[in-house]
Amino acid sequence: MVKYLGKRIFYIILTLFIVSTITFFLMKFMPGTPLTNQAKLTPSQIHQIYKQYGLDKPVWQQYLVYLAGVVHGNFGVSFQFSNQAVSYLIGSRMGPSLIIGGQGMIVGVLLGLVLGSLGAVKANTWIDTTSTIVSILLVSIPSFVLAVLLQYYLGLKLRWFPIADWGGFIYTVLPTMALAASPLAETARFMRTEMVDVLSSDYIELAKAKGLGKVGIIYHHALRNSLIPIITIIGPLTVNIMTGSMVVENIFSVPGIGEQFVKSVLTNDYPTIMGLTIVYCAMLCVVLLITDILYGLIDPRIRLSGQSN
Amino acid sequence: MADNAKPISTGDFKPVTAADRSHLDSEKISAPSLTFLQDSWRRLRKNKAAMIALIVLIILFILAFGSGFFETHNPNATNPNLANLPPKIPGIDINGFNGTIMQSGTRVNAYAQAHAGNAYYLLGTDYLGRDLFSRILYGTRISLEIALIASFFDLAFGVVYGIVSGWMGGRVDTIMQRIIEIMLSIPNLVVMVLLILVLKPGMSAIIYSIAITSWINMARLVRAQTLELKNQEFILAARALGESSLKISFKHLLPNLSSVIIINLMFTIPTAIFFEAFLSYIGIGISAPQASLGTLINDGQKNFQFLPYQMWYPAIVLSVLMIAFNILGDGLRDSFDPKSRE
Amino acid sequence: MENNQNVLEVRNLKINFNTYAGTVKAIRDVSFDLRKGETLAIVGESGSGKTVTTRSIMGLNSPNAVIAGGSIMFKNQDLLKKSRKQMDAIRGNNIAEIFQDPMTSLDPTMKIGKQIAEPLIIHKGMKREKAYAQALEMMKLVGIENAEQRINNYPHQFSGGMRQRIVIAIALVNYPEILIADEPTTALDVTIQAQILDLMKELQTKTNTSIIFITHDLGVVAGMADRVAVMYAGKIVEYGTVDEIFYNPKHPYTWGLLNSMPTMDTSGTELPSIPGTPPDLLDPPKGDAFAARNKYALEIDTKQQPPFFKVSDTHYAATWLLDPRAPKMTPPEQIIERQKHYAKLTHEAIDEHKDKHVEEQEEQL
Ligand SMILES: Nc1ncnc2c1ncn2[C@@H]1O[C@H](COP(=O)(O)OP(=O)(O)O)[C@@H](O)[C@H]1O
Ligand SMILES: [Mg+2]
């Protein structure tokens, strides 16, 4: 287990190193500098600013400085907000993103599990059809369309929730709903397939032969066996939430990293883009690691093969 | 026993000749055996939702690629005098399609107000007076082009990558899998955005960014299936006969991979369409004045409260496109899956 | 002694399946009895309807199955008329089943102790502790070593043979009157097969359970069964005691099955399998379903289904060859050998039978 963990962490570090390197050199090819947005400056002022950003050194030196910074969680200074450290910018915006992202994930996965298992247990009935239609709709309608519709109808028309801004819990409801749609639909689809599979397996047949009733079969055998593989889609769902948050945060003016990412992209704020790229990758790697470990802890088959290795 | 009603004669007890017996046997071949693809197609045809989705997609394809015939106006021609006109379909007098609009509590004829004369716009005009119908058709074409391009890369790159990785095994496989793992730990959208920034926003940047991200799932699934097929007898036999790897791939592997490939393709396509719309929506995709469903939705959203049709129509078309591809994908998966056979 | 000893009576069972291509007539008028403490083997090629027959007894046929007629009497009640709830109370309690593939028939995420204890908790309403204690006994009975430790293991920690022992423990934990074993050794290695068969025989003598033993392999029947029913295309074509079927078979299909079975005498020579394939059950033939593959087919076979002809009190076969009007046919050489052997055997058997009777009576005393 310790060996496995060590190996995984090594690969995460390798991945982050590669990602940092690629983003660094990509950004070096970019047009635009911190000066793009500023009016005419004297050569000495330009030199001053270049020095401030470390742009006067040769590229390989800049690269080493950047890497050393990344190791210490220092991603340089933002071009857009010239006196803010990127790491501070990201840190201050992390909270709202984690809140709506986490809520969206939890709400989506839980409702998806319910919807998916209902569909499987009542396969080929109207309940199944409804569950399928709901998940197809939610997986197909783009998050930005859904967000605008939620904002207009539940916010502006019905006035149930604030249309934008950031404050207490009530401000998180609409963004959470918009973000929950994708994990809800994906989980429901996955769960339904998984459970239909399990319900037609030999061990469910044996459970029936034991005389276990329908409820007992679902509760004691089918649910656990179909729930375990759900862990494997948490990683991809996290990616969906990250993607969705970029527009959802924008539409609802949530001061999170998703909104910041889009803003930085539109203003060519390279240090922030680079920092956020690395942070996104790091978060995803951690989620993937946790889900893998969780899967190993929960599934007895993997748990044991892990021990014997 | 009703059968016993017939009297039995002693003549009935003479042996049947071998020739007659084979005749007996051949009579019984009633259901013609179908090939796997024919069988799947038959099952797909029975799936109503999938067939409707297929028809919808065919119609959208024809409309979008034949848009020269259907476009009532040049999609990029601006006409500030005729800006923000509501939909007007000649001969239909239903509010919402007759060129009228609510203005401070009363319904007015917007076309008359703008002195539009005989002009009509099926789905109205945008804030620059461009014909929304033509722009939606154009945007749909962009989406479908993206779909085709993503499919191409899925096939050309993903399938080959998967087969090579699974077939070679060993060290090559390990390295190729590591690369995929690294790709998987970067959110696709982040990769796309970085590439687009380097290449400058536009159609070609979107194509490259979709090319570089869309093949990964295909490669993984094809690899898994190849690993499974590799040790099956017919492949082992072909190898023992000394057939080249390339020949085996085309003759034996690809036909057996076809269902995995087709199903996965059907899920790559809506993802690609989504990403194009998404990038265009946030403003780094298809650049103005060209239309994309994403930019149209972004434009329409600004006026959603007063001119809701400007966002509704592109949003509906985009959603219908996604829904149709997803339903067709589901239908294909069910029809290819032998387990779902009754 | 005969009739009131029947624990199960299947009469004129007809099962159809509705499919997109039409109605599959999977079971076409099957009748048989199962007696107390005996092992009845049902033999036939795959697709002949063995599994559907057992599923009907368990009430576990797939949803597209239609009971087109017949009855399955158990304790004077027709199982086909029972509700799902009523069947739940019988399954795993009075009638239990062992499935073909032990690798897939155990829940991979549940400890085997719980899986064995489950039928006790369901049917006997036992508390956890007591059920586990009994499950432990059962594990020892089916020959699992270190049962105290292994009770907390998961299925994947056992070999195929061990898993099948666990499945047997699950089936027998409530001491059912009837045990249905649907090809219980087909998925196992030959050496393991023999162990499992021995175990089943041993447990049968201990528990006095009646067994319906399904197999497509006549080879395993000899040492296992008391009586044999041969099935083809949804019908029973011949049944009798194990000796009658093995050494005095009357149906050409049974001949074919026996000829394709390896024995001491045939080792080395090539085994002929029955040429051709079973008929399409969507549209079964009017006459004898086996006619098209039958070297000995008569004209009448193509027109009318043969009734059962009596060979002895215990032995019946449905073939027109047994009709007095039928021409004399010479069975395959091997079958003649068998019949010669049978003639010798019957003399010995009469003596043996007497001995057996004495033994049985002693046991009961
Ligand atoms: N659910 C079903 N739907 C349609 N046909 C079925 C179904 N189950 C079994 N059959 C058909 O019934 C026949 C008997 O099958 P089965 O009892 O499984 O054979 P066996 O166990 O002797 O190998 C086969 O022709 C099979 O195709
Ligand atoms: Mg069977």
Word description of this protein:
The complex is a heterotrimer of chains A (309), B (342) and C (365). By secondary structure, chain A is an all-alpha fold. Helices cover 75% and strands 0% of the residues of chain A. Chain A contains 13 helices and no strands. In chain A, helix 4 (86-121) packs across helix 10 (234-251), helix 5 packs across helix 7 and helix 11 runs antiparallel to helix 12 (270-298). By secondary structure, chain B is mainly α. A two-stranded antiparallel sheet of chain B has the order 1-2. In chain B, a hairpin with a 2-residue loop joins strand 1 (100-103) and strand 2 (106-109). In chain B, helix 6 (132-168) runs antiparallel to helix 12 (245-282). Mean pLDDT of chain B is 79; it is low at 1-5 and 26-31. With 365 residues, chain C is α/β, with parallel strands linked by helices. Chain C has three domains: 1-94 and 179-264 and 271-321, P-loop containing nucleotide triphosphate hydrolases (Rossmann fold), CATH 3.40.50.300; 100-173; 332-365. Chain C is built from ten helices and twelve strands. Chain C has helices at residues 50-58, 84-90, 112-123, 128-141, 147-150, 160-172, 190-207, 242-247, 252-259, 333-364; strands at 6-19, 22-35, 39-43, 65-74, 77-78, 95-98, 178-182, 210-215, 227-232, 235-241, 309-312, 315-317. In chain C, helix 3 (112-123) crosses helix 4 (128-141), helix 3 runs parallel beside helix 6 (160-172) and helix 4 crosses helix 6 (160-172). Chain C is globular. Mean pLDDT of chain C is 85; it is low at 358-365. Bound molecules: adenosine-5'-diphosphate (ADP) and magnesium ion. Chain C: It is found in: Cell membrane. Chain C: Its main location: membrane.
Keywords:
heterotrimer, A: 309 residues, mainly alpha, MetI-like fold, 13 helices, 75% helix, flat, B: 342 residues, two-stranded antiparallel ribbon, 2 strands, 2% strand, disordered N terminus, binds adenosine-5'-diphosphate, binds magnesium ion
CATH topology of the largest domain in chain C: Rossmann fold
Biggest β-sheet of chain C: count, sense, barrel? 8 strands, mixed
Coarse structural class of chain C: alpha/beta
Beta content of chain C: 15-25%
Shape of chain C: globular
Q: Nearest-angstrom radius of gyration of chain C?
A: 21 Å
Instruction: Please report the total strand number of chain C as a whole number.
Output: 12
Query: Overall pLDDT of chain B, averaged?
Result: 79
Enumerate the spans of chain B where pLDDT stays under 50 for 5 or more consecutive residues. 1-5, 26-31
- H/E order of the elements of chain C? EEEHEEHEHHHHEHEEEHHEEH
Based on CA atoms alone, the radius of gyration of chain B comes out at: 29 Å
Fourth-level CATH superfamily of the largest domain in chain C: P-loop containing nucleotide triphosphate hydrolases
Number of domains of chain C: 3
Task: Output mean pLDDT of chain C.
Answer: 85
Distance N terminus to C terminus of chain B?
Answer: 32 Å
Question: What's the architecture of the largest domain in chain C in CATH terms?
Answer: 3-Layer(aba) Sandwich
Family (chain B): Belongs to the binding-protein-dependent transport system permease family. OppBC subfamily.
Transmembrane segments (chain B): 49-70, 146-167, 253-275, 311-332
Subcellular location (chain B): Cell membrane
Membrane topology (chain B): Multi-pass membrane protein
